[in-house]
Amino acid sequence: MRSILILSMAAAFTATHGQEPDVKTGGIVMFGDSTTAPRATISKVYAARVEETLRGGGFSLPVLNAGVGGNTTRDALDRLNQDVLRHRPRVVVIQFGINDAAVDVWKKPPVTTPRVPLAEFLRNIRRMISLAREQDARVILMTTNPLRWTSRMRELYGKPPYDPHADDGFDALHLAVYNDALRALASELKAPLVDVRAAYPAFAAGHGTTVDGLLLDGVHPNDLGHQLVAELLAPPLLEMLR
């Protein structure tokens, strides 16, 4: 199971299938990996925060959390029908990339390329959008949060092609490229984009902290990080629902 990004961080990437076993139509599905999924160390992930905001705006509709730890876009396509399309949502929010772009240098022998090549990553996202739109669902894309080094991350990933000496050396190599490509795809397909990655530095500074201060463990957003995502995501969702 070490194929899951940094699995040794205990339950950080444990799959969380079955959060919403019943079909709930006409709502919003948050489709992502462990940065979307519920977790015991977070009081309220962004899906729950957005649901509260929507209710405050007069929209009482189901917000389903379809985040599963460790997922790449390849994994996500395999469960798209079960976890997303069968609910016939009004809106699908898609956020993937951290696991796709990961280079598993901790393996023996070390891997030297991302788990999911960039071209396949984009094909997979394009396919998700196409299938959702076939059901007349609206789609919002989100870039990933940035990553930062911790002692554990350096132990696992602190070797070439990563740069353990640069603050952004954990994600500047491939993840930044995947996010840039996602921005271009969103523009091409005229899909709204919530640029989480770009918003992190200013939001952190405004709260008297750094990018590291919005992360639990260098990878996953903490409560303040989830607050940021919810604040970014709520306005376009409210606009779509009006």
Features:
242 residues, alpha/beta, Rossmann fold, five-stranded parallel sheet, 5 strands, disordered N terminus
Question: What features would you describe in this structure?
Answer:
By secondary structure, the protein is of the alpha/beta class. The protein has a single domain (28-241), classed as 3-Layer(aba) Sandwich (Rossmann fold), CATH 3.40.50.1110. The protein is 39% helix and 9% strand. The chain has 8 helices and 5 strands. Strands 2-1-3-4-5 form a 5-stranded parallel sheet, sandwiched between helices. Helix 2 packs parallel to helix 4 (118-134), helix 4 runs parallel beside helix 6 and helix 7 (196-206) crosses helix 8. The model is unreliable at 1-20 (pLDDT under 50).
- Assigned CATH class: Alpha Beta
Q: Strand count, sense and closure of the main sheet?
A: 5 strands, parallel
Oligomer: single chain
Percent of residues in helices: 25-40%
Arithmetic mean of pLDDT: 92
CATH domain fold name: Rossmann fold
Poorly predicted runs: 1-20
Structural class: alpha/beta
Rg over CA atoms, rounded to whole Å, is: 17 Å
Strand content: 5-15%
Order of helices and strands: EHEHEHHEHHEHH
Tertiary shape: globular
Distance between the termini: 44 Å
Number of separate strands = 5
The figure for the number of domains is: 1
Sequence-ordered SSE layout with sheet pairings:
Blueprint: E1 28-32, H1 46-56, E2 63-67, H2 73-83, E3 91-95, H3 98-101, H4 118-134, E4 138-142, H5 151-157, H6 175-189, E5 193-194, H7 196-206, H8 223-241
Parallel strand pairs: 1-2, 1-3, 3-4, 4-5
